[in-house]
Design goal:
The protein has 336 residues and is α/β, with parallel strands linked by helices. The protein has a domain of 206 residues: Rossmann fold (3-Layer(aba) Sandwich), CATH 3.40.50. It is built from 11 helices and 12 strands. The strands form 3 sheets. The protein has a 7-stranded parallel β-sheet with strand order 3-2-1-4-5-6-10, with helices on both faces. Helix 2 runs parallel beside helix 4 and helix 6 packs parallel to helix 8. The protein is globular, with a radius of gyration of 19 Å. Bound molecules: nicotinamide-adenine-dinucleotide (NAD) and 2'deoxy-thymidine-5'-diphospho-alpha-D-glucose. 2'deoxy-thymidine-5'-diphospho-alpha-D-glucose (DAU) binds next to helix 6 and strand 8. Nicotinamide-adenine-dinucleotide (NAD) binds next to helix 1, helix 4, strand 5 and strand 7.
Length: 336
């Protein structure tokens, strides 16, 4: 049976990917996760015994990573790398863990992959390309130059460059994907959509940074997972694939939609302090992934995906409730 080592597999998207793999392949999964504040053991609960193992550890631990990668077969097995510090606002307050996990962690994996000749998929973000003007007719493509803005996106860009260098110089068999903004179950309440939904569920108010003109390109996490598995199975080593679902919305539009779907007045929200260096617009052109690998998203209606996500948060207060007060207290110190 094929084994996939999934780093960050207890996080929002990593755990979604683990479920997806178990449903859509016969692979066995080993999760390597440090179980930081962003992880959820609960997201991995109820999975078939014997097919999933959780190893609690750090991707920067070279001895552990060497042992885990060395236990894989160079023929069929692969490492899928989700582990990261992932929140821009946190990277502005303390960049240090972003440098360690996102850059040194990727370097640590690459050294082990190189030594043991194992296939690799590196999960990255559209933020490495910087931002677009609101009226730019072009979207990001695989050839857009790198221009990251925040410590988070700069650390992800650094990791991408390391992967490409290890492909070219040492022959590592790696693919890369750069995806747009994900939404769905198990996303931490520090992020935009869960923050607003849980603010309303907890009797608080919606918080919009600045004017809300900033645009994000939303994709359901299930569709990100299916894209990563497609690339793993059909992608060409050395290639990058952009992942997106044509889901551009301004933050203002999203806030108004959340309020409407939750039966509130769409104009009943607070404008709060803007994020320093706030990227204006992200937008993905997913043509290569769609045409070369035949991938397409299942969630074609953002409104429907968002409504289902709101229902999920309403039913899972036991999971997000204990995290909520500390997140809001930290935002309050930033005027957000
Ligand atoms: P997340 O913050 O929800 O989860 C990250 C996971 O990595 C957590 O389980 C955490 O415990 C683990 N982790 C952190 N540091 C670690 C370390 N040193 N060693 C081992 N494990 C560690 O993140 P996410 O939103 O699920 O993002 C997953 C990946 O997808 C990241 O690489 C991110 O850059 C990328 N990505 C995210 C989005 C998005 O919208 N969330 C979009 C595109 C790409
Ligand atoms: O584009 C992919 C990226 O998307 C991923 O690489 C990141 O890991 C992921 O966190 C996400 O980054 P963003 O910074 O775009 O996501 P965030 O959820 O933090 O914010 C989305 C937008 O909403 C952004 O323009 C800031 C704004 N925002 C955010 C919060 C938390 C608000 O207006 N109010 C808020 O309370």
């Amino acid at each position: 049976m094929r084994t996939l080592l999934v780093t960050g597999g207890a996080g929002f998207i990593g755990s979604n990917f683990v479920h997806h793999v178990l449903e859509h392949s016969d692979a066995r999964v080993v999760v390597l996760d440090a179980l930081t504040y962003a992880a959820s053991r609960e997201a991995l609960a109820g999975l078939p015994q014997g097919r999933v193992e959780l190893v609690v550890g750090d991707v920067t631990d070279a001895a552990l990573v060497d042992r885990l990668v060395g236990g894989l077969s160079g023929e069929d097995d692969a490492v899928v790398h989700f582990a990261a510090e992932s929140h821009n606002d946190n990277s502005l307050n303390d960049p240090s863990p972003f440098i360690s996990t996102n850059i040194t962690g990727t370097f640590t994996l690459l050294e082990a992959l190189c030594k043991h000749g194992v296939r690799f998929h590196h999960v990255s973000t559209d933020e490495v390309y910087g931002d677009l003007a609101l009226d730019d007719p072009e979207r990001f493509t695989e050839t857009t130059p790198y221009r990251p803005s925040s410590p988070y996106s700069a650390s992800k860009a650094s990791a991408d460059h390391l992967v490409r260098a290890w492909v070219r110089s040492f022959g590592v068999r790696a693919t890369l994907s750069n995806c747009s903004n994900n939404y769905g179950p198990w996303q931490h309440v520090e992020k935009f959509i869960p923050r607003q939904v849980t603010n309303l569920l907890a009797g608080g108010r919606v918080k919009l940074y600045g004017s809300g003109a900033n645009v994000r390109d939303w994709i359901h996490a299930d569709d990100h997972s299916s894209a990563v598995l497609t690339i793993l199975e059909k992608g060409r080593a050395g290639e990058t694939y952009l992942v997106g679902a044509d889901g551009e919305r301004s933050n203002l539009e999203v806030v108004r939609l959340v309020l409407e779907l939750m039966g509130r007045d769409p104009d009943d929200f607070d404008h709060v302090a803007d994020r320093p260096g706030h990227d204006l617009r992200y937008a993905i052109d997913p043509t290569k992934l769609r045409t070369q690998l035949g991938w397409s998203p299942r969630f074609t209606s953002f409104e429907e995906g968002l409504a289902r996500t709101i229902d999920w948060y309403a039913a899972h207060e036991d999971w997000w409730g204990p995290k909520k007060a500390a997140v809001e207290a930290a935002y309050a110190t930033q005027g957000q």
